[in-house]
Amino acid sequence: MLTVHAADAVHGAPDGADSVAVDGGVVVAIGTYGELTAARPQARVRRWSGLITPGLLNAGAPALLEADYHPDPREADELGGDPLTGDALTALGMDDARWGASARRGLQRMLRHGTTAVRGPFTRPAVRTAVARSGLRVHPPGPAPEPVSLDPLASVPEPADAFAAVLAVGGPADLAVFGVRDLVALRTAGAGSCTATVLGGRLVFRRS
Fold first, then answer.
1. Chain centroid, CA 121 distance in Å
2. Lateral strand order in the sheet of 137-139
3. Contact, 42 vs 2, CB < 8 A?
């Protein structure tokens, strides 16, 4: 569906550009809201407050999905809400079904942090299946980040170092929207300030 995403600014775009038009899974235009909507009066418009950037790459995904257990909200009274590791993880007696369910919840948490791509490899079959079904793009293996975090910005010197791709006309419509005005503020706020994530042109997360 043809959609114009409008915000306060678009990172890397010419001065004054505040909107991105996507059609299907592709970016078809970047410019001002007035220009994009005038040329595409039939487009759906999504208005956001803050900054549109490319989606983020979480390079620590293998550790987050294959060495952490992400509790079901129904388990909160017993296990809490934070990922479990070490002895707490061992005590759960994990099997493939539980690893798959945990991975799906972990992937949803990543989407809430503006992540549109992850770095492999994934060795557990249930986790590989969850990643494949999520639609997130899988990048080749690389150095493990430090620290490993749901926030890809926590392990890079500058926010732009965590971008999964360049936001450009003809490129994938993988976007993140953060409730800040620029990368300086984003560095301080972190990826937890994400208000929306668009993956392949689909809105996959929207903060209520």
1. 18
2. 56-58, 115-119, 137-139
3. yes
CA 108 to chain centre: 9
pLDDT tens readout for residues 29-76: 999 999 999 999 999 999 999 999 999 999 999 999 999 999 999 999
Domain extents in the chain:
2-55+165-206, 57-155
Per-residue pLDDT at 14 exceeds 90: no
Residue 73 in tokens: 């909200």
- What contacts 35, CB < 8 A, 6 or more positions away? 19, 29
Task: Return the pLDDT at 128.
Answer: 97
Residue pair 13/189 in contact by the 8 Å Cβ criterion? no
Instruction: List, in sequence order, every beta strand (DSSP E) within 44-83.
Output: 44-47, 51-54, 56-58
Output the pTM of the full model.
0.95
Topology of the domain covering 2-55+165-206: Urease, subunit C; domain 1 (2.30.40)
Q: What is residue 15's predicted lDDT score, i.e. its pLDDT?
A: 86
φ, ψ for residue 134, nearest 5 deg:
-70, -25
Q: Are strands 9-10 and 2-6 parallel, antiparallel or unpaired?
A: unpaired
Quote the CA–CA distance of 179 and 185 in Å, as a whole number: 9
Residue that has been written with the tokens 């299946």 in this structure: 129
Structure tokens, 138: 């899988």
In which element (H, E) is residue 139 found? strand 137-139
